[in-house]
Specification:
Elements (H helix, E strand, L loop, with lengths): L3 H19 L4 E6 L10 E4 L5 H7 L3 H16 L3 E2 L6 E13 L6 E4 L2 E5 L5 E16 L6 E10 L3 H16 L8
């Protein structure tokens, strides 16, 4: 027979495992044109043609500056050079922080960006979490159509956590560039 003290020592471990299993997980995906020869890309520029230096001088939003600095660092570490004229690729990105709403048929109601879930006792409680989403696009300069893109979704508590995570998210997204042929 199990002792009571063993049960009480095991309970916190089980609770942590259950909570960890319920926590939102980071999600990453990529998409690319299978007909594109990625080995030909040696240079790039921002789609808006502003350099990171211009961002610093013009005082662009700190979050955007952080994303642009991280993208610049990662592309340079992969051997791509930032050029002002005739780049092989144009780079763009979209990012957002929002509250993700969880859907659970039969036991969920919605109000704006908040999910209301019913527990076993019949009481309703609020269930939502903040999530940061960042998509990086690499575009053909002639057509301005994407030849490669990657999206990352990460759970975040607040804007300062989002700022801390940006370099790692950008590194993870660009780790799949150039895509490997199968």
């Amino acid at each position: 027979m199990m002792s009571r003290s063993f049960f009480f020592r095991l309970t916190p471990v089980l609770v942590l495992l259950l909570l960890g299993g319920c926590a939102p997980k980071p999600e990453y995906s990529q998409n690319f044109s299978p007909t594109t020869d990625f080995s030909r890309f040696k240079t790039w520029n921002w789609e808006d043609e502003k350099s990171v230096l211009a961002d610093n001088l013009l005082g662009q939003d700190p979050m955007q500056r952080l994303v642009r600095k991280a993208v610049t660092h990662e592309l340079e570490s992969r051997g791509l050079r930032l050029v002002m004229e005739n780049p092989d690729l144009l780079v763009s990105y979209r990012g957002n922080v929002f509250k993700a709403v969880y859907a659970n048929p039969k036991a969920t109601g919605f109000t704006s960006q908040v999910a209301w879930e019913q527990n076993d006792s019949g009481s309703w409680f609020r269930r939502s979490s903040r999530e940061g989403v960042l998509t990086i696009f690499l575009l053909d300069p002639q057509t301005r159509q994407p030849v490669w893109s990657a999206t990352g979704r990460e759970p975040i508590a607040d804007e300062s956590e989002a700022r801390r995570k940006i370099p790692g998210v950008v590194r993870t997204l660009l780790s799949s560039f150039p895509p490997q042929r199968r």
